[in-house]
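Predict the assembly for these two chains.
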Amino acid sequence: MIAFTKVSKSFDNGGKNFVRALNEISFEIERKEILCVVGPSGCGKSTIILLAGFIVPDSGSITVSGKEVAGPSYLRTVVFQDDALFPWKTVKDNIGFGLRCKGLGSNEQAKKIRDILSITNLGEFSDCYPAQLSGGMKQMCALGRALAIEPEIILMDEPFASLDQQTRDLIQEEFLKIKDQIAQTVLLVTHNIDEAIFLGDKILVLTARPAQIKEIITVPFEKPRSPDIRSSQEFIDIKSRIWYMLRNDISVENLV
Amino acid sequence: MLNFPIKRNFSYAASIFGLLFVWQAASMVYHNYELFPSPVSVFLQLIQLFSYQNYITDVIASLKRVVAGFFLAGIMGVSLGIITGINRRLSYIVKPIIELLRPIPPIAWIPIAILLFGLGDLPAIFLVFLGAFFPIFSNTYLGVTHVDGRYIKAAYSLGATMKEIVLHVLIPSSLPSIFIGLKVGLGVGWMAVIAAEMVGAQSGLGYSIQMNRLLLDINKVVSGMVTIGVIGALLNLLLDGAGRKLIPWNRT
């Protein structure tokens, strides 16, 4: 459904800082699939999200349902690391923003907002401002805002990275439950291997800069998944396999 | 922190009483009530002044001019600030003009204002406008040009058009900054009206102070100053209240 074909991207920050972020990346995401992208820190993972429309690749093509990507669109909505909720809008107005842009009538908007509030468990906070929510609730609201407009794909850039470990585990479980209900296609970039295995149908492992595809792993666990799989031998095996792939690419130079 | 507001109000009151106490003590030491009136005599004078129709007319005249000039400056400063903040090419034309005119204090405009508008309400309104416009424009412009890029990206990826970005992202996210501009503008406008009235008007608090200066009635001069201070502070409180209503997400 979404296809990256030989996509390359470099950044040129005033001549001296020429950075090759992506080098001939090709992969596909099937409809309703969650594809997680992991890679060494600073390898250009987030560039994949930017290519959803904010920036143009140097070469190669990105297509969604066969159509070339050009410019940002609500069909490929982004959930950012630090929620990016509008601080001046309440929870329900944040969720309703995309619907309003889509030109939905107020009754349809209200109905959709109610649905989203109930699947994200934010019903009693509908009139709160983002500043009044906890980190986990903010991220749920940002996810709800993206879900409301029913995009073709949701692009998530380290969406749970700013949360503490406990909240993070819980919200991952919550995210899978919601995903089961609404059957969305998701591209999720993370540096957290556990997260990638727990959430992903497939995992794309990238090399250090310029990022190339090291391997695409199909995660064997059936959905719905129980949190117990986190401690299963199979989970641990996949984790050490990915970690082994990554650590070859993580050198001290790359960390600086 | 339940007792915080009580504590705060108490320190406000204590601070004002402290100021009055120092003033009273200083005037007693100076011991010439004709030249350095005490707060008590000013207070009594104020009660007397407010029983005169003339004084109330002066207060209302000044307020009317401030409100008119401030209103004009608010409408023009905010809309021009937003438009130049959005349109970079326009900002290249508008900004240099603004930066050249801004350092000229409203008082320096008085001769021109009187030549243009004669004596009365208009030159004073014009000066209030000049004083209030620049801080309002600058803060609005600053707010619009410093919007966090994440919000704009998020809005685009939710399907927003330019119009929705302006109405739902740029303007609301600049409101706190616009409000700072309005507060500063109102303060400067209030100062400008007094200056204008001291030179080019036949009514208003500035005119009243000027008259009493010529009559060497320092008690009334100081009463006028106190009136100006208190009304200025009240206007500021009023705007703060409006700000809290209009910007409920901004709790700082």
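The mean pLDDT of chain A is 88. The first strand of chain A starts at residue 2 and ends at 13.
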